[in-house]
Every structure is written in structure tokens, then in C-alpha cells.
Design goal:
The chain is α/β, with parallel strands linked by helices. It has helices at 16-30, 48-54, 79-84, 95-100, 105-117, 130-134, 138-150, 155-158, 179-197, 199-204, 218-222, 239-246; strands at 4-9, 37-42, 59-62, 89-92, 121-126, 162-165, 207-210, 229-232. The structure holds phosphoenolpyruvate (PEP). Residues 9, 166, 171-172, 210-213, 231-235 line the site of phosphoenolpyruvate.
Length: 249
């Protein structure tokens, strides 16, 4: 049975002190929810070790990692450093990294491999831009992203991937994909995994939806058979709203 997951991406928000406070609030808000959902938060790098101290049910993710293992890469944080800090997951390929920092499929593929080699679970993001959706190219776009980013992994490695489908036009815009749109493309993504790794692997792969998912629409989105949870941006910064999303299964 694949895991149900709700992951909060804090992006570049919160001072260290406010981040620790939010982590405590999230831990308290979700500790009584026993619906089998894995709850993950992804604070900024410098928060990770302090946040780690105040969570137990909630799991810890980074928002990014370096595409090289170590060395002269000023400003970067390596996958093995994250592992040594007690981090379990890392978001790779978020659309903000792809567009603002020009992270190519090749770079993201290197990051995925380093994350896996260091025992981290990548939360790998894919999703189309608005013009691509309007031109009905969204299926081709996600196929290309998943093929170049992930499909040279061994089956054993692929089993450690969490996918997040995030239509870029829905991120931070207040526009959510409809439940039907989400189900349609999640089912398509799962069919790609079936074709590459077989039905058993595909059935076990968690595919999260991200893009203006909130406490009001999560229930309808998560009710779809191929939507296994959410990657949450804005609504992850309010512990009470985030907890409602977690309890939406
Ligand atoms: C995100 O950045 O992954 C995201 C889904 O953001 P938001 O929920 O704010 O749209």
C-alpha cells in the first residue's frame, strides 16, 4: 500500500525563531491525527537542525540539495550534510528551482542520485506552465520531466521516490487544478511508471498534488484514487490550516 503524505514547503519564509515556533505548533496540531498520513515539513536549510529537536511525529525535509557531492561549490548544501543533520527527505525540481535557478533535467537527475545515494527520499516535482496546459501539452511536459529526471534509476532506487505533480499555474496563485484535472494527470503519471517499472512499483508510488491546495479544497483533491496527498506551500505556514489538510483523508 502506498503512503499517504502531506508535506509542507515553507520556501524562504520565517526567521529561525519563528520557524521553530511554527514547527512546534505543527507537531502539536497533528500529533492527535491518527489517519496514517506521513506528515513532513521542509523549512529553510538553517532551520533544519533546530526544527529537528522539536518534532517527533512530523518528519523533516530539505527544500533542495547540491548536484555535486562535496568540494568547492560556494553556497551549496550537499545531500550527505542533510543526512548528517537528521533530514529524511529532500524536495528536488520544484518549479521555482527549475525557473529561477535554471535547474535543468540533467542537474535534477544528478541531485536525485546523490540524494538516494545518501539515504534521502527525494520528493521530485514535475508540472507544466500555463501556456503548456493551454496548448494541451501538459502530458508531454510531465512525461519529459519524469523520463529525463528519473527513468534511468534502477527499480530499487525508483521505489524510494515520492512524486509531486505541481501545475506551475496553480502554485501560489490561488488557482487549483480541479479534482478531475488532478486525477486525470496523476493517473497518466502512474501509467508512465507502470510502463517503465511495472504495475507493482507504480501502485506503491506516492504521487502528491501541489498548487494552491488548502484546508478548503484538500478533501476533494485527496479523494481521487491517484492523488496520494499534497505538497503544500502557503497553507503550510499556518499550523491550524496545515493540520486540517493532514486530516482531510
Ligand atoms: C509549492 O510551492 O509547492 C506550492 C504548492 O505552493 P502553494 O501551495 O502556495 O501553491
Amino acid at each position: 500500500m502506498r503512503k499517504k503524505i502531506v508535506a509542507g514547503n515553507w520556501k524562504m519564509n520565517k526567521s529561525l525563531q519563528d520557524g521553530v515556533t511554527l514547527a512546534k505548533e505543527v507537531e502539536a496540531a497533528v500529533s492527535g491525527i491518527n489517519n496514517g498520513v506521513d506528515v513532513i515539513i521542509a523549512p529553510p536549510f538553517i532551520h533544519l537542525t533546530e526544527v529537528k529537536k522539536v518534532i517527533s511525529k512530523v518528519k523533516l525535509s530539505a527544500q533542495n540539495c547540491a548536484s555535486e557531492a562535496s568540494g568547492a561549490y560556494t553556497g551549496e548544501v550537499a545531500a550527505d550534510m542533510l543526512k548528517s543533520a537528521g533530514v529524511g527527505y529532500v524536495i528536488i525540481g520544484h518549479s521555482e528551482r527549475r525557473s529561477y535557478y535554471k535547474e535543468s533535467d540533467e542537474i535534477l537527475n544528478k541531485k536525485v542520485k546523490l540524494a538516494l545515494a545518501n539515504g534521502l527520499t527525494p520528493i521530485f516535482c514535475i508540472g507544466e506552465l500555463l501556456p503548456e496546459r493551454e496548448a494541451n501539452k501538459h502530458f508531454d511536459v510531465v512525461k519529459d520531466q519524469i523520463t529525463k529526471g528519473l527513468f534511468d534509476l534502477s527499480e530499487t532506487d525508483f521505489k524510494n521516490i515520492v512524486l509531486a505533480y505541481e501545475p506551475v499555474w496553480a502554485i501560489g496563485t490561488g488557482k487549483t487544478a480541479s479534482a478531475a484535472q488532478a486525477q486525470e494527470i496523476h493517473a497518466f503519471i502512474r501509467s508512465l511508471i507502470v510502463a517503465k517499472y511495472g504495475k507493482a512499483v507504480a501502485e506503491d508510488t506516492s504521487i502528491l498534488y501541489g498548487g494552491s491546495c488548502n484546508d478548503k479544497n484538500a478533501k476533494e483533491l485527496f479523494a481521487n484514487p491517484d492523488v496520494d496527498g499534497g505538497l503544500i506551500g502557503g497553507a503550510a505556514l499556518k499550523a491550524d490550516q496545515f493540520a486540517v489538510i493532514v486530516s482531510s483523508f
